[in-house]
């Protein structure tokens, strides 16, 4: 019943027990997982995982931290791979001003190129935004990202930022930090997001929810995000699981 919209199950942190982690996700009620490949190293392993499991799908793109390494050939490669029926979106793409491992102008150019590709392919995009809210929104507007829409992944911004993203046809996705006791702003924002625009994710192996904070995250823990979201909106766990799964299927254009 649960739809996990953002995982990195091909990460090295899962090399010892990947199959068991995926099995545990199913035992926890996860019926669909979207896994992310975001650079030259992770895109091939992401594709392999999507082909190995019928309920795992791929999103491929170029992460802002790796922007300085992306070439036009890489973009053509992403376009070619996107024809695979298991690829349901492009990303994660965006801006990261926290780590700043690539020059900001290079990040912006790589971001713009990927939005243009997504519009050409008519595919939704998954946005990585760290400490760059206004610049991300500006680029989304200038590149007409509303034409394809997508996900503001692991949202940590203000309601003002969320509102502008919603106006551009984006869904707002929350991960483990929503479950933290001190997560005042994320809870307040999540309460205001319309039900038909909410999504849940783990971003595993990162951002582990309470009560496992500090340990490796895994897709099965998306249930704790769903529980918190259900509490925030005064709904049952089952209702929230259904709502967020329906939203994800609609965004990724999955039938059934």
UniProtKB/TrEMBL annotation:
Pfam families: TatD_DNase. A divalent metal cation 2 binds at residues 128, 153. Keywords: Hydrolase, Metal-binding. GO terms for cellular component: cytosol. A divalent metal cation 1 binds at residues 6, 8, 92, 203. Transmembrane segments: none annotated. SUPFAM superfamilies: Metallo-dependent hydrolases. InterPro entries: DNase_TatD-rel_CS, Metal_Hydrolase, TatD-like, TatD/YcfH-like. One of its GO terms (molecular function) is DNA nuclease activity. This is Hydrolase TatD.
């Amino acid at each position: 019943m649960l739809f996990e919209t953002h995982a990195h199950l091909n990460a090295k942190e899962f090399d010892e027990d990947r199959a068991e982690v995926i099995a545990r996700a199913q035992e926890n009620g996860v019926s669909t997982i979207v896994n992310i490949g975001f650079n030259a190293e992770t895109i091939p392993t992401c594709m392999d995982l999507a082909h190995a499991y019928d309920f795992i799908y791929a999103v491929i793109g170029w992460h802002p931290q790796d922007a300085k390494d992306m070439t036009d050939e890489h973009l053509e490669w992403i376009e070619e791979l996107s024809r695979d029926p298991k690829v349901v979106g492009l990303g994660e793409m965006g801006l990261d001003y926290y780590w700043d491992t690539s020059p900001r102008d290079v990040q912006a150019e790589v971001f713009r190129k990927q939005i243009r590709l997504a519009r050409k392919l008519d595919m939704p995009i998954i946005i990585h935004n760290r400490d760059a809210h206004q610049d991300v929104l500006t680029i989304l507007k200038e590149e007409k990202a509303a034409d394809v829409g997508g996900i503001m992944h692991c949202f940590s911004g203000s309601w003002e930022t969320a509102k502008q993203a919603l106006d551009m046809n984006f869904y707002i996705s929350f991960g483990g930090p929503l479950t933290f006791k001190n997560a005042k702003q994320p809870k307040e924002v999540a309460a205001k997001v319309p039900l038909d625009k909410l999504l849940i994710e783990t971003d595993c192996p990162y951002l582990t929810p309470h009560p496992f904070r500090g340990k490796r995250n895994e897709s099965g823990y998306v249930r704790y995000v769903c529980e918190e979201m259900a509490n925030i909106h005064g709904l049952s766990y089952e209702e929230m699981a259904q709502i967020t799964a329906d939203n994800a299927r609609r965004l990724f254009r999955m039938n059934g």
